[in-house]
Amino acid sequence: MDPYLPNVRCPTMSKGRYIFLAVLCGAFAFALGIIIGWFSKTEAGPGLTAEDRAALDMYRESIEDADETIRDHILTNIDAERIRENLRELSAKPHMAGTPPDHEMAELLKRRWLENGLDEVRLVPYDVLLSYPPLGREGPNNTVVTVDGADPAREFEDTRSLHIEPEYQDDPDAVQFFNAYSPPGHPVGELVFANYGRLEDFDYLRQAGVNCTGKIVLMKYRSGGRGTKARNAAAAGAIGAILYPEPADTNAPGGKVYPEGWDLPGTGTERGGSLLEPGDPLTPGYPATDYAYHLPEEKITVFPPIPLQPIAYNDAQNYLSHLDGDVAPADWNGTLPITYRLGPGFTGDWAGRKVALHVYTNTTMRRVYNVVGLIKGRLEPDRYVMLGNHYDAWVQGAIDDTSSTAMSLELTRVFGGLVKDDKWRPRRSVVFAAWGAEEFALLGSLEYVEQFTYLIKERMVAYINMDIGVGGNYTIFGGCSPPLVDVIYDTTKQVPDPDASLGKSIYETWAERDPKDADADVKVPKLGWPGVGTDYISFGRRVGTPLFTFAYVHDQTNYSPRSVYPSYHTAYDNMDVMERFVDPDFTVHRAMARISGELVRRLADALVLPYDSRKYAPSLSAFLQATEEDFGSMLHDQDISIDALRSAVANYTVAAEDFQGRVQAIDKKDPMQIRRLNDQMVQVNTAFIDIHQPHHFEKHVLFSPSGCATNSSAAFPGIVRTMCDGPVNEEGWREIKKQVAAITSTIQSAADVISDVDSILGPS
Ligand SMILES: *[C@@H]1O[C@H](CO)[C@@H](O)[C@H](O)[C@H]1NC(C)=O
Ligand SMILES: *[C@@H]1O[C@H](CO)[C@@H](O)[C@H](O)[C@H]1NC(C)=O
Ligand SMILES: *[C@@H]1O[C@H](CO)[C@@H](O)[C@H](O)[C@H]1NC(C)=O
Ligand SMILES: *[C@@H]1O[C@H](CO)[C@@H](O)[C@H](O)[C@H]1NC(C)=O
Ligand SMILES: *[C@@H]1O[C@H](CO)[C@@H](O)[C@H](O)[C@H]1NC(C)=O
Ligand SMILES: *[C@@H]1O[C@H](CO)[C@@H](O)[C@H](O)[C@H]1NC(C)=O
Ligand SMILES: *[C@@H]1O[C@H](CO)[C@@H](O)[C@H](O)[C@H]1NC(C)=O
Ligand SMILES: [Zn+2]
């Protein structure tokens, strides 16, 4: 029985009426009256009209805490074999964004989610600029080839690079190797090797006397964005860029390559977008709807400036092994069985040859869809908890990210089943999202957040994201908004490790395998602000929505820390790899789905949100400390005071402590107070957004990146940003002064949001 019920009824039931009833009906009737009054939920009790009863029921419901038995239902009903069958079906064929199989998948998900019991599912369309090489085996193929330096029309056919994984060349839906948004072009030049293509790599080349002007630059993947590598190469004078996955970074030493193992063979390469920042390049800041204003293409500054093409490492080895020039520094070495040299140009048999790029990749407008489904909340339908992942893939993408799509499909069955059978309906609304065109540039999620910015800001209680959901069987890798840390830890304590023989929770193995502090006596799992680029970005950095993004990853011990997983963005990211090497019994999938499902249930159903606003305070102090240490004396010399910033950080810390005290002392019988404190717990996250920050979606004063390639100071990004390029000029110092004030005001605003109502009067 509801423990609050007696208190509720007291004021409306007069003693006089009880006595009157007792006299009139006698002891038996009195007892019956009591029984009816106490136990009946639907019929009017003594002295209560039907309307009173209904009002009381509504009140009772409004202060009812979550039914915790639903947790067991969700955890036990998530079925590993169903997830396997989902993944088999969804990864059966390539489904690159903007192509017919991609659209079919959106329709399929919509149909299934509805069948599974969601209240409503829609496709949300955007018309965006995508980029493809010739599709369907009809046009020419993107290739790299060596040519006669004196007569570049003369190609050495036997040096022509692969343009697709050979096993997939007969599947017209499997796209050839390309980097989306590369300009088309056919540059010819001598080859130079530039390690990871970072600015310091080009500095090294310059100091080593290697002039990149007019050259084609070969670079390894990792340690920086694809487009950034092309931009750095172009800045050094290069006219074409080639990327390859270095086996030292993707594979374990002595590991077996596919199909004997899951490591990357020398016949596949990573595809991938190369825009310098995500989002539809034609509609920055605004949704790519049919009424959108489109930038003219010549105004777009986010394309890589030179043609860019990925090749497999067998081909990279072929070119590198003939390179002339100095031996590359030891830390540029990979594990190809060659001596890594800098170039320029070739030596031996290949002397005098140049490299020609044939890049046919070009932009094109396409319609892409998000699939968005709703379970309407029972009491607070205007408060949303969203679970999202992208459904597009470069090829089949069994790992990236069809594994997540398979899990969320199973979750729609489990949640939808409860709703369909009238067993349960969450307090708040649950929203499922399958994002389109993530791989190109986070398009679906970014355009969606641009379209619904204020709806999301005002109403979204949490955004949970999965990407590369099951990329390994070792441990969780993720990041979150600080207030969510505890509820995430608690949730992973409820879910057993996928390896049942260990008898441990995910939390325990996560803390052992990836501790926040390896030297701590009691280890806790590593969980900070997310560092990877996926669909949470605009929720987190444009709106400030409380969020968690996560994946299950492989043991990196024998792999380079730069490794994502070996078959990342290749055609070898397929069901076979998943079933034989990553998650044969689908217990990792089941565990991930359980974590997502239980987290969504808790956040959607909890009477009081399990958030802790105090968790921002250590981040604020760390940003402040780094600002003082890295820039304190320079700021002082410029007469820029950070006293007010220090005061805002202190004010936040005190305000959060007070606020958490109010949350702990919450009157669970007062629905208005519950709603008020819950709202504040969400609003404090969005308060760290400064809408006046210049970038169109990087608006978080703590967690937006500074955008610096070289300056890695952990100070507030708005301050670091202006320091990127060395000495700051007068205008720069004015900007920094402005940023210090902006950050101070934003942090103080966050403190005000969690202060009590009289904060509207200003400081006392
Ligand atoms: C491109 O490659 C495909 C195989 O993947 C081949 O069938 C086709 O003929 C090639 N196109 C050209 C123009 O060489
Ligand atoms: C690099 O080569 C270009 C073109 O050959 C030339 O104009 C430029 O001066 C060279 N740069 C250096 C630093 O030698
Ligand atoms: C690594 O680089 C150094 C030169 O910097 C070279 O002497 C050495 O042979 C290289 N190692 C391998 C395995 O290629
Ligand atoms: C690339 O596509 C644009 C239209 O998006 C077109 O104007 C241009 O001619 C194409 N370039 C090549 C080389 O095909
Ligand atoms: C994870 O996968 C590796 C490689 O397939 C395997 O050796 C290992 O036993 C698996 N670990 C667990 C915990 O299942
Ligand atoms: C911090 O709070 C104190 C006391 O209310 C107030 O005087 C001060 O102005 C606040 N700091 C900022 C930056 O607003
Ligand atoms: C970042 O910039 C500051 C100020 O210019 C400078 O003192 C610091 O050394 C830079 N840090 C890095 C890693 O470049
Ligand atoms: Zn992905």
UniProtKB/TrEMBL annotation:
<dbReference type="Pfam" id="PF02225">
    <property type="entry name" value="PA"/>
</dbReference>
<keyword id="KW-0325">Glycoprotein</keyword>
<dbReference type="InterPro" id="IPR003137">
    <property type="entry name" value="PA_domain"/>
</dbReference>
<keyword id="KW-1015">Disulfide bond</keyword>
<keyword id="KW-0812">Transmembrane</keyword>
<comment type="function">
    <text>Aminopeptidase with broad substrate specificity. Has lower activity with substrates that have Asp or Glu in the P2' position, or Pro in the P3' position. Lacks activity with substrates that have both Pro in the P3' position and Asp or Glu in the P2' position. Lacks carboxypeptidase activity. Lacks dipeptidyl-peptidase IV type activity.</text>
</comment>
<keyword id="KW-0645">Protease</keyword>
<dbReference type="Pfam" id="PF04389">
    <property type="entry name" value="Peptidase_M28"/>
</dbReference>
<dbReference type="InterPro" id="IPR007365">
    <property type="entry name" value="TFR-like_dimer_dom"/>
</dbReference>
<keyword id="KW-0378">Hydrolase</keyword>
<dbReference type="GO" id="GO:0016805">
    <property type="term" value="F:dipeptidase activity"/>
</dbReference>
<comment type="similarity">
    <text>Belongs to the peptidase M28 family. M28B subfamily.</text>
</comment>
<feature type="domain" description="Peptidase M28">
    <location>
        <begin position="370"/>
        <end position="577"/>
    </location>
</feature>
<keyword id="KW-0479">Metal-binding</keyword>
<keyword id="KW-0735">Signal-anchor</keyword>
<keyword id="KW-1003">Cell membrane</keyword>
<comment type="subunit">
    <text>Homodimer.</text>
</comment>
<dbReference type="GO" id="GO:0006508">
    <property type="term" value="P:proteolysis"/>
</dbReference>
<dbReference type="InterPro" id="IPR036757">
    <property type="entry name" value="TFR-like_dimer_dom_sf"/>
</dbReference>
<feature type="domain" description="PA">
    <location>
        <begin position="189"/>
        <end position="271"/>
    </location>
</feature>
<dbReference type="Pfam" id="PF04253">
    <property type="entry name" value="TFR_dimer"/>
</dbReference>
<keyword id="KW-0862">Zinc</keyword>
<dbReference type="GO" id="GO:0004181">
    <property type="term" value="F:metallocarboxypeptidase activity"/>
</dbReference>
<keyword id="KW-0224">Dipeptidase</keyword>
<feature type="domain" description="Transferrin receptor-like dimerisation">
    <location>
        <begin position="640"/>
        <end position="754"/>
    </location>
</feature>
<dbReference type="GO" id="GO:0016324">
    <property type="term" value="C:apical plasma membrane"/>
</dbReference>
<dbReference type="InterPro" id="IPR007484">
    <property type="entry name" value="Peptidase_M28"/>
</dbReference>
<dbReference type="InterPro" id="IPR039373">
    <property type="entry name" value="Peptidase_M28B"/>
</dbReference>
<keyword id="KW-0482">Metalloprotease</keyword>
<keyword id="KW-0472">Membrane</keyword>
<keyword id="KW-0106">Calcium</keyword>
<dbReference type="GO" id="GO:0004177">
    <property type="term" value="F:aminopeptidase activity"/>
</dbReference>
<protein>
    <recommendedName>
        <fullName>Aminopeptidase NAALADL1</fullName>
        <ecNumber>3.4.17.21</ecNumber>
    </recommendedName>
</protein>
<keyword id="KW-0031">Aminopeptidase</keyword>
<feature type="transmembrane region" description="Helical">
    <location>
        <begin position="18"/>
        <end position="39"/>
    </location>
</feature>
<dbReference type="GO" id="GO:0046872">
    <property type="term" value="F:metal ion binding"/>
</dbReference>
<keyword id="KW-1133">Transmembrane helix</keyword>
<dbReference type="InterPro" id="IPR046450">
    <property type="entry name" value="PA_dom_sf"/>
</dbReference>
